Amino acid sequence: MKAVRTEMQEYRNSVSSLVATVGVCSDKINNLTTHMEAIENTSARTASDKDGEDDPYDFSSEDEEEVQAAVAAAHAPRAPAVETPQTQAHIEPARLEQFKSALQQLFREERASSLPLARIHAHANAAQAHAPFTDTELRAALARMTHDNQVMLADDIVFLI
Predict the structure, then answer these.
(1) Which of 25, 45, 75 lies at the terminal end of a domain, its last residue?
(2) What is the pLDDT of residues 12-65, one digit of tens each?
(3) Phi and psi dihedrals of 51, rounded to 5?
(4) Quick one: which of 152, 141, 158 has its CA closest to 10?
């Protein structure tokens, strides 16, 4: 059982690392695309403004400002692509306990170590019919339980650790 938990934790760490890497790569691609578009726009305008002269160093101050703005935007710090615990939604401790109780009951009834998120949401809302869980509460509860190494969420499947 301990080996399974260790393996699940390693898998969770790998997934988190990959998500962060994809976010960083996506940001870099967007920055390069913006920079390339600025260069292409500058080249197109310079080519159409030429009076037959072929001077590669002939830039207007307007073109130079656009290129500098694109370069500055490419190097500007960006918000993290991965949701951090500080940016996650909050769930009240009493609601978290209600969710944990419903989740534990479902895992026991199903005798499973992983369940689809939709099934968990339906069961939790059935258990708390007078005050159903919102998507935000559900995600906040799972995020808290993931942080506490109790469950892991991947591809809308919740794994019991």
Answers:
(1) 75
(2) 777 666 666 666 666 777 776 776 777 776 665 555 555 556 565 555 556 566
(3) -105, 45
(4) 152
Do 66 and 103 belong to one domain?
Answer: no
Q: Which of 134, 120, 47 has the alpha carbon at shortest distance from 90?
A: 134
pTM score, two decimals? Answer: 0.47
**CA dist., res. 58 & res. 46, Å (int):** 8
Q: How many domains does the chain have?
A: 2
In angstroms, rounded to a whole number, what is the distance separating the alpha carbons of residues 14 and 8? 10
Backbone angles phi, psi at 110, to 5 degrees: -80, -20
* Structural domain span for residue 144: 93-160
**Measured CA angle at 33 (ends 18, 21), to 5 deg:** 10
